[in-house]
């Protein structure tokens, strides 16, 4: 019998105090630092919704400091793409518990 708890269920996901803190870019090209994205594709074109979604998923999953969220996420963009983000259940729950408006957006 496997009694190990999956990492995703033990992981604590960072959530900002207020969505208005998220003032990251909405246009241009963004290169994430390696502590947020260690893949070969660390550069995201914000005019491409698939890039935006992937970047937001990575930042939400990997952020360990509030500045990571503030620097790379934008609250208006987050509200727009929230329903399409593929996130760990615990991450989605943490964000939606704090920000009920995201539940309505989904």
Largest sheet: 2 strands, antiparallel
Number of helical runs? 6
Binned strand content: 5-15%
The stretches of 5 or more residues where confidence is low (pLDDT under 50) are none
Count of domain modules? 1
SSE arrangement, N to C: HEEHHHHH
Mean pLDDT: 92
Distance between the termini: 37 Å
* Global outline: globular
Instruction: Report the count of strand segments.
Output: 2
Helix fraction? Answer: 40-55%
Summary keywords:
106 residues; mainly alpha; two-stranded antiparallel ribbon; 6% strand
Secondary structure topology:
Elements: H1 7-10, E1 29-31, E2 43-45, H2 49-62, H3 66-72, H4 75-81, H5 89-98, H6 100-105
Give a description of the structure.
This protein is mostly helical and 106 residues long. The protein has one domain.
Outline of this structure?
The chain is mostly helical and 106 residues long. The protein has helices at 7-10, 49-62, 66-72, 75-81, 89-98, 100-105, and strands at residues 29-31, 43-45.
